[in-house]
Amino acid sequence: MVALSPEVFAQARTMMVDSQLRPNRVNDVKLLGVFGSLPREIFLPAAMAARAYTDENIRMPNGRAMLAPMATARLIQDAGVQPGENVLVVGSGTGYAAAALAQLGANVTALEEDNGLLQIARLALAQLASKVVQVTGPLAAGWAAKAPYDVILIEGAVDLVPEALANQLAANGRIVLIRHDNDRVGCAAVGTRSAGGIAFVPKFDCSAPLLPGLAREAAFVF
């Protein structure tokens, strides 16, 4: 396989922004700048790097996936992340969304339990000298040591949000996820925490593999 040049990848990033993000209501200027400069290809195994800017979820081992660029960008934009906010990425995979959030100025903790994905993320984040803090453990448990979080981004599909994870969201915090809907297209949603609980608002159709530990046996229904 012939390795693609940095110039080819740079052109692919520009095309991704212009043909996938802008036409799909990604309009945050700073976010578009991050996606136009962040080298998505380094967050994939070398043999898969040529697919980095395709408009699709990229299947990874153990039933996981790197979400399509549009889905990742819309989830981040809909979360309304502000510089300095405390953000937890659950199911952070190879680290692409976490790196983008860090470049937007957030304080990011990336939680992953798959060792293979963790290794790819470590190499990519080190290459960027990113300030993302990587942690490992069951996704359903979240990461209480750094809670509460202003934003929790679940990078994949879920049936239910575990109570332990929901409890790590700060007052008025936002949780962004993809509702799993069996064989049909799922729906991205944003939930905001108030005294009465977490109220979710649907945002856009989106599909992703169901994340481990976030299936029906969880306790908190959204």
Describe what you observe in this structure.
This protein is α/β, with parallel strands linked by helices and 222 residues long. A seven-stranded mixed beta sheet has the order 5-4-3-6-7-8-9, with helices on one face. A two-stranded antiparallel ribbon has the order 1-2. The protein has a single domain, classed as Vaccinia Virus protein VP39 (Rossmann fold, 3-Layer(aba) Sandwich), CATH 3.40.50. Helices cover 28% and strands 26% of the residues. It has helices at 6-21, 29-37, 69-79, 96-103, 115-128, 163-166, and strands at 58-59, 65-66, 86-90, 107-112, 133-136, 149-158, 169-179, 187-194, 197-205. The model has no long low-confidence stretch (mean pLDDT 93). The chain contains six helices and nine strands.
The largest β sheet comes out as: 7 strands, mixed
Name of the CATH homologous superfamily? Vaccinia Virus protein VP39
Integer average pLDDT: 93
Give the helix tally. Answer: 6
The H/E string reads HHEEHEHEHEEHEEE
Beta strand %: 25-35%
- In total, the number of strands is 9
Q: Which percent bin holds the helix content?
A: 25-40%
The domain tally reads: 1
Report the end-to-end length measured between terminal Cα atoms: 45 Å
By secondary-structure content and strand pairing, the structural class works out as alpha/beta
CATH class: Alpha Beta
Radius of gyration, Cα only, in angstroms? 16 Å
